Every structure is written in structure tokens, then in C-alpha cells.
Fold:
Amino acid sequence: MADLSVFYKLDADIAWQPTDPGVKRKVMAYGEQLMIVKVAFETGAIGTLHAHPHLQMSYVEKGRFEVEIAGHKKILQTGDVFSVPSEAVHGVVCLEEGVLIDVFNPMREDFLLR
Structure:
């Protein structure tokens, strides 16, 4: 896991954590107010609909996803970004193997408990 300085470990040094079937994540770096997480999806994997108090922005590093936020769906692909307001119900379906880079404010303490 990343140390809490201004420089962080290389991606290769951080272990993947399995989440849902076909989904795994790496907490890349975090501080009290901000966290960045890499999430990898196999084709067909689902990021289950959920909500949380954190603000979230996500960058599609690779692949294609059907993204649902507050009942609205859109297909996003490599290079696209989406924003999730606090408490908005959201989730994704991976249409083509991909990676999301998620940023949370404040940091997700629940991601550190695994």
C-alpha cells in the first residue's frame, strides 16, 4: 500500500484486491481528503449499483463501459471521464475489458479494511 508522503510506490508494487466477480482493484495512493484507485474489469463484469457519501470522478483508462448514474446510462470508452455526486446510485457494466481510475473525496476508509 502507498505510504502517506508525497511520493508513492510503483503500480507493480501494489497488490490487486478482488472485489466482485471479474473485478479487482489497487488503492494507488491516499490521504485523509483524497484517494486514487485503479479498478480492472473483465469483459462482462459488473460494478454493482451502489451509493456512498464520497464525491467520485472516474477516468476510463482502457476499455468500454455502460455507466449508470442516478438512473441515466451512457456508453463510455478509453479517454472518457464521469463524475458521481455524493449519494448518487451508480454502477458499471464492462462491455470490453478495461480499467477505471477512480478518485474519491474524502478517501474511502472502507477500501483500507480488506
Observations:
- The two ends are 12 Å apart (CA to CA).
- The first strand starts at residue 17 and ends at 18.
